[in-house]
Write a structure and sequence with these properties.
Layout lengths: L12 H13 L8 H23 L9 H11 L5
Helix pairs in contact: 1-2
Pfam families: COX6B
Subcellular location: Mitochondrion intermembrane space
Organism: Aotus nancymaae
Amino acid sequence: MLRLRDPDINPCMLESDASIRCLDANNYDKERCSTYFLKYKNCRKFWHSIMIQRRQNGVKPFMPTAAERDEILGEMGKMPY
């Protein structure tokens, strides 16, 4: 479980934490947190596609580090998810 708390391994830690906080704040009413879940799901999809691309291109590590992800997002100019 500690691996999921490592920002170099889990690119969607902020989105995951926001989902949990929403559930806590809304007495675990999932309907009230659907936008948080969607953002988390889109985050996972986005970074998974980057990981597949890097694997196909022989770039290691397959998942960019937290610093590399910040660079990638900075170059995009906006959040893709």
